[in-house]
Amino acid sequence: MTTLAKYLFGVVAAFVVLALYHVHPALAQDEAAAAAEEVAKLDTGDTAWMLTSTALVLMMTIPGLALFYGGMVRKKNVLATVMQSFATTCIVTVVWMVISYSLAFQDGGAMNAYIGGMERFLLHGMGSDTLSGTIPESVFMTFQMTFAIITPALICGAFADRMKFSALVIFMILWSIFIYAPIAHWVWGGGFLGSLGVLDFAGGTVVHINAGVAGLVCALFLGKRIGYGTENMAPYNLVYAVIGASLLWVGWFGFNAGSAVASNGSAGMAMAVTQIATATAALAWMFIEWIVHKKPSVLGIISGAVAGLVAITPASGFVDPVGSLWIGAAAGLGCFFAATTMKKAIGYDDSLDAFGVHAIGGIIGALLTGVFAVKAIGGTPGLLEGNPGQVLTQLEGIIATIVWSGVGTFVILIITNILVGVRVSQAVEIEGLDINLHGEVIQ
Amino acid sequence: MKLVMAIIKPFKLDEVRQALTELGLQGMTVTEVKGYGRQKGHTEIYRGAEYAVNFLPKIKIEVVVPAKMVDKAVDAIVAAAKTGQIGDGKIFVVPVEQTVRIRTGETNESAL
């Protein structure tokens, strides 16, 4: 233990040295600013990268998240959990095509601060020559669709092991339309949070705080699993979870670097800081767990990596590598305490820590984006560059998202509960969702 | 004839198999089992949630031997399966009334 303590001391010392370095302003990058305001023209480089990013982000949900979550539940519920991710992918694709894309990204007229319009209902008017910036609108629409898919799929971690499948189908349709589309519009579609100056490069607020808070509401609404705290709920197969987390990590380059919506320096820096924050958060979780629970666990290091990915998401186009190191460290430690100590103290059953990792990681990331933003990288200075107001702006984005997601999710759950009932019967829950909901089992 | 039933640590299976084969024994049945003795179980921790696991994975070997071979077989298993750590397992010896080889109809010791 003393050796470990020495190592930790070394790590802390290294952070202090790096912090001193951080006072140094980063090198200016003016290429992005110069290229920004030209006449809209298709760029083949941008288009190629966005086609790639779109495929990467889809891979995050299937098979990434499906395996990450599937490996963490008990054997009797693995197929049901994988099914939740896969079915959500299909459901949201159709809903996005029909209405959500239009509500999120079209001009909403008088209501534009809060919700978009119906111009692209059924993707009407989107042709192969319609552009969105420098890429075809079809690519932009599909890229954004993959974000709309993963966000509600993340919520499944909170209600794993006890949600009816029929309830899931209804919940996902309503949630994509009434929760995801408006919040995406607020931040990215011309709504009030974007106008306010909230920085959310790739969806820390829109995706992660949103999904995490919805997850907490679901966990509270459905109640604890039978046997929670007394029965052994050890994961079925952590190798699946490792494969899933690794696919999430790789896919996240499409998520963050793709959110530059261009093949440029901003995308490159987003990729670099994503890698750094993720590794740092994984190490932070590993070391703190090593100290607190005496062993560095596999589930711990992958959970830390996901926490880091979440936290760097809003910051990825705005911070420099040293900023990302701090964000990663804060996310690893913060999410560790949220998923272990805080969850135990408060007593809710967030099965796979959708709230503890995504909401807490998202909030840490959103706030620290306001602290570490570098003007030369993303155009906006943060607290460290003398702009403390940015942290408050970030806070406004966080609060608006928590309120809409929390209240809206609660209302949707009430409606779903009236229509079909949200929770499976006690007998089904004990015997397992796989055989009862889907008629299949893993041998 | 006696049935020698040994519960051993899983990673000792191959050494035990080899030791019994060297005695000239021609077959055995192996089952993956779970259980506990004085070793009790162990504790697993997943994101801070601790679970006491009472039943640990073990291997059960069943081999039927002629009465005169019993002591040698038991000694061979003990020698091969022993680590000296808690949880090495146990051996039970029980009498067997009859043995039949299904293919040929041979009975008792000639069927072993």
From TrEMBL, chain B:
Function of the molecule: In nitrogen-limiting conditions, when the ratio of Gln to 2-ketoglutarate decreases, P-II is uridylylated to P-II-UMP. P-II-UMP allows the deadenylation of glutamine synthetase (GS), thus activating the enzyme. Conversely, in nitrogen excess P-II is deuridylated and promotes the adenylation of GS. P-II indirectly controls the transcription of the GS gene (glnA). P-II prevents NR-II-catalyzed conversion of NR-I to NR-I-phosphate, the transcriptional activator of glnA. When P-II is uridylylated to P-II-UMP, these events are reversed.
Annotated organism of origin: Methyloceanibacter superfactus
UniProt cross-references to SUPFAM superfamilies, sorted A to Z: GlnB-like (SSF54913)
Sites bearing O-UMP-tyrosine, chain numbering: 51
Assembly and oligomerization: Homotrimer.
Signal peptide range in chain numbering: none
GO CC annotation: cytosol
Family the UniProt entry places it in: Belongs to the P(II) protein family.
Name of the molecule in the record: Nitrogen regulatory protein P-II
Listed GO biological process terms: regulation of nitrogen utilization
GO MF annotation terms: ATP binding; enzyme regulator activity
Gene3D superfamilies assigned: 3.30.70.120
UniProt KW keywords: Nitrogen fixation, Nucleotide-binding, Phosphoprotein, Transcription, Transcription regulation
